[in-house]
């Protein structure tokens, strides 16, 4: 009846003939809420600008549980949840959907927003042919809940579209997660996936950014907005207990053009004499540096001092994840496309201290601002790592775009439209993505 004039075609009703698309976010690319286990109001803890640091420390600071493999919040009265509103798209659209963020149009948190608009403008319909997958990005990329969540989304998209295979579009760490899924659930992947378009994925790690994240923390936004946001040190205390971060350390077995290093200007005193030299740590040697630098790392949570050293249990888990990624093979019949960022200085080697101001005790590194040496990339992931997918790609394309900017780049959109076999529906007033203002948070 689809083509019967008596009933009208789907095109005539404004529903285009499309294979479903599932958008998969990366590290920090999903709204995260804190929900009381018994009763009370749900609070958005990531992403938010107003009172961001306070809510982050109170609600999302975590400890890794080696018995379960999960990172668990210190706040035992609440749980971390990712909203699934708008068919999963809400959580990955505008990460802080408050009136304040919209007023200043902070593009750093306009995550998949432009891409969702683009796809809707090409005839995709939310809940029928367009879906999103946000997840708790603190956790391992191969942990059960993350894997089951992706499986469920694929099944939902497949069923809602009338049994069509799904086209995946992943960003950043989302590609690592899909690689794990492809290894662990190969039959499911083969059954449901048609094409995988990967954007800015750190297949071999993001050496400069991840090394420094484990040692000194991370700022999600730059400039004056950072004063409203989660502080670098506050973020650091979360990342030390995040398996997902350890899983993006530089792959020590990859044949880098030049192995990434951590450099430290050290001061050693013996018999009253000072000796200053530059020490170098490669991907394997860096483990001993992390151990020593983080040995005294701790936080005070509600009056209780909690030790947060470098976590060897997480490292052991991450080593197995890395092997899983290395074993990932593209099933027959699935097309893989890789878009990676270029033309931006991207941290690679990271250096602490200087010849004039050397590090005496390695724990000082955690309170030292780094100096980077750079390679080509998207500002976060080196092009060399993003291209190193180890898969039989139908096409690989470098685009001059930043790590998050790649999600709203017009050239990227043109490639996606070509690979999906769609184009903007000119002349049709397609309803674009709308994100409702967030409800007032009860703090």
Report on the architecture of this protein.
By secondary structure, this protein is α/β, with parallel strands linked by helices. The chain has a single domain (19-418), classed as 3-Layer(aba) Sandwich (Rossmann fold), CATH 3.40.50. The protein has helices at 52-59, 99-104, 113-121, 144-160, 173-184, 186-192, 207-215, 232-239, 243-246, 286-293, 312-326, 383-387, 410-420; strands at residues 21-24, 32-36, 43-46, 62-65, 70-73, 78-81, 130-133, 166-171, 193-199, 262-270, 273-281, 298-301, 304-307, 335-341, 344-352, 371-377, 395-399. Strands 7-1-8-9-14-17 form a six-stranded parallel beta sheet, with helices on both faces. Strands 11-10-15-16 form a four-stranded mixed beta sheet. It has a three-stranded antiparallel beta sheet with strand order 3-2-6. Helix 5 packs across helix 6. The longest helix has 17 residues, at 144-160. It is globular and about 80 Å long. This is Phospholipase A(1) LCAT3. InterPro entries: AB_hydrolase_fold (IPR029058), LACT/PDAT_acylTrfase (IPR003386).
């Amino acid at each position: 009846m689809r083509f019967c004039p008596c009933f009208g075609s789907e095109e005539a009703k404004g529903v285009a003939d499309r294979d479903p698309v599932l958008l998969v976010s990366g590290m920090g690319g999903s709204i995260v809420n804190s929900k009381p286990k018994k009763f009370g109001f749900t609070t958005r803890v990531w992403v938010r600008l107003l009172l961001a640091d306070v809510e982050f420390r109170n609600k999302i600071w975590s400890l890794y549980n080696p018995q379960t493999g999960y990172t668990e919040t210190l706040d035992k009265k609440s749980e971390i949840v990712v909203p699934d509103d708008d068919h999963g798209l809400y959580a990955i659209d505008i990460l802080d959907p408050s009136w304040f963020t919209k007023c200043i149009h902070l593009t750093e948190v306009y995550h998949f927003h432009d891409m969702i608009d683009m796809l809707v403008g090409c005839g995709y319909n939310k809940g029928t042919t367009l879906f999103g997958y946000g997840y708790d990005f603190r956790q391992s990329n191969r942990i059960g809940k993350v894997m089951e969540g992706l499986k469920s989304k694929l099944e939902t998209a497949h069923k809602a579209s009338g049994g069509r295979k799904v086209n995946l579009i992943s960003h950043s760490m989302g590609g690592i997660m899909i690689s794990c899924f492809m290894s662990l659930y190969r039959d499911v992947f083969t059954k449901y996936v048609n094409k995988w378009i990967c954007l800015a994925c750190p297949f071999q790690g993001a050496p400069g950014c991840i090394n420094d994240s484990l040692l000194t923390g991370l700022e999600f936004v730059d400039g004056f907005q950072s004063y409203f946001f989660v502080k670098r040190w506050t973020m650091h205390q979360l990342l030390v207990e995040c398996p997902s971060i350890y899983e993006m350390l530089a792959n020590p077995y990859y044949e880098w053009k030049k192995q990434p290093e951590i450099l430290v200007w050290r001061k050693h005193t013996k018999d009253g004499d000072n000796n200053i030299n530059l020490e170098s740590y490669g991907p394997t040697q860096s483990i001993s540096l992390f151990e020593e630098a983080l040995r005294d790392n701790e936080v005070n949570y509600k009056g209780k001092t909690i030790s947060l050293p470098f976590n060897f249990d997480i490292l052991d888990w991450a080593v197995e994840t890395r092997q899983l990624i290395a074993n990932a093979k593209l099933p027959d019949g699935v097309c893989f496309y890789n878009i990676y960022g270029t033309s931006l200085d991207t941290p690679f080697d990271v250096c602490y201290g200087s010849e004039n101001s050397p590090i005496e005790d390695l724990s000082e590194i955690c309170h030292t601002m780094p100096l980077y040496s750079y390679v080509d990339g998207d500002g976060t992931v080196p092009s060399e790592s993003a291209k190193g997918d180890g898969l039989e790609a139908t096409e690989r394309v470098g685009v001059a775009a930043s790590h998050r900017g790649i999600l709203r780049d017009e050239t990227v959109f043109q490639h996606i439209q070509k690979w999906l076999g769609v184009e903007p529906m000119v002349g049709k007033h397609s309803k674009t993505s709308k994100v409702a203002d967030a409800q007032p948070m009860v703090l």
